[in-house]
Amino acid sequence: MPPGPCHAQFHLSLLPLPKAQSPPFAVLVVMDFLVGFPVRAVVFALQQMPLRMVARLGRALGAVAWILDRRHRRVALDNLRLALGSRLTGRQIVDVAREHFRRLGENYACAIKTASLTNDQLRPHLEISGLERLVSPSGQRLVVAAGHFGNFELYARANRDDPTWRLATTYRALRPPALDRVLQGLRRRSGALFFERNHDGAAVRAAMAAGNVTLGLLADQHAGPRGLWLPFLGRPCSTSPAPAIYALRFDLPVVPAICYRVALARWRIEVGNPIPTRHADGSRRDPAQVMSDVNAAFETAVLRDPANWFWVHRRWKERPPSPPPATPAHA
């Protein structure tokens, strides 16, 4: 009898698989050009315009995205209904989501423009309050828990009036690499330190040990199955423990920071009160306790200006089932 499909699959699995081949160098160069050139052209064009013009253009593009980007429009509306459905009417939820898309366009476009501005040029457009809270009583820099609020790329400019310290943060590399290189080129102008989160853990710890670095971490997006499942806007969600873990490692408090849009092409970064990582008796707090306080600070910011937060990311996902308990060896 001839072998059936299962036999064929078994025999094929025994054959050596060809090794994955990297694209030829010439192909990589062409791909880099096709992606990188138009992106750099857009960056150059935006950086030649006045900031307020860039902001208006970004808002117009955001309004177009609201009409055309059905997938992210649905995500934003679903998130708003989950989180604020008991606070806002259906009409208000749609209005917040539409304004949020305009804000996204404004913030993304302005982030490109503000990356080219000096601190003095940026000063009329960016106010920073509570900066003194970034220093502990012992003089050490703290760990900042930030979120995707407003023009969040401006967090990197928080040290504009005190260049004796630097902000460090982590990022996830974009694909294709040409796009990531453009983005990192813009970010390097801020003077902040950027570490790729999947490969630069040791470098982050070394920078923190130097003592003149403030670590800022975005901690308001879904953290996957390894995150802490904590309440946020009334619903449990996977929360990154990274700010609490780094703060506990270096025995520092965590400070929340929010970037608010206050007018067209104007923002204010507000540094909140430190969240302790130790109890009154000196014992260490659990990371879940610390991050619950961070989520509470983010909640306050969302309720203050709902359109200012990043609603196009699925923050609330289904919790994976817990693994079954291990069977005892003698069972």
Shape: globular
Structural class estimated from helices and strands: alpha/beta
List how many beta strands DSSP finds: 9
Largest sheet: 7 strands, mixed
| Low-pLDDT windows of residues | 1-20
Q: Gyration radius, to the nearest Å? A: 23 Å
User: Helical region count?
Assistant: 10
Overall domain count: 1
Distance between the termini: 44 Å
Helicity, as a percent range: 40-55%
- Overall mean pLDDT score? 86
The percent range for strand residues is 15-25%
Q: Note the run of SSEs as H and E.
A: HHHHHHEEEHEHEEEHEEH
Strand order of the largest sheet: 1-9-8-2-5-3-4
Could you explain the architecture of this structure?
This protein has one domain (32-308). The strands form two sheets. It has a seven-stranded mixed sheet, sandwiched between helices. The chain has a two-stranded antiparallel ribbon with strand order 6-7. The chain has helices at residues 5-13, 25-48, 51-68, 70-84, 90-114, 119-122, 177-188, 201-209, 242-249, 287-304, and strands at residues 126-129, 143-146, 166-171, 193-196, 213-218, 228-232, 235-239, 254-263, 266-271. It contains ten helices and nine strands. Helices cover 43% and strands 15% of the residues. With 331 residues, the chain is an alpha/beta fold.
